[in-house]
Amino acid sequence: MNLPPLTKSQRRLMNAIITHIEQHRVTPTYSELMAQLGYASTNSVSGLVRELEQKGYLTPGHRIRLSDAYRLVVLTAH
Q: How far apart are CA 71 and CA 73, in angstroms?
């Protein structure tokens, strides 16, 4: 399965999410991502999260979750 390419900002957010999961074993909050990426508000994060949901990298919902499609791509790449 091919997912659409990411913009630089989207890729930066995905990297932050994945790094947080690897380090803490839970997904980050919008506030944690805001602080880590140096954004002034969580609106910047929520906009990028929506874009990643639309592209199929994240699962829509209240919490940030990696989509099954993204997990499949990662598993087959390794």
A: 5
Residue 26 is classified by DSSP as S
Q: What is the structure's pLDDT at 40?
A: 94
- List Cβ neighbours of 68 (8 Å cut-off, separation of 6 or more): 59
β-bridge partners, 66: 58
- Model-level pTM? 0.89
Nearest-10 crossing angle of helices 42-55, 8-24: 100
58 forms beta bridges with 66
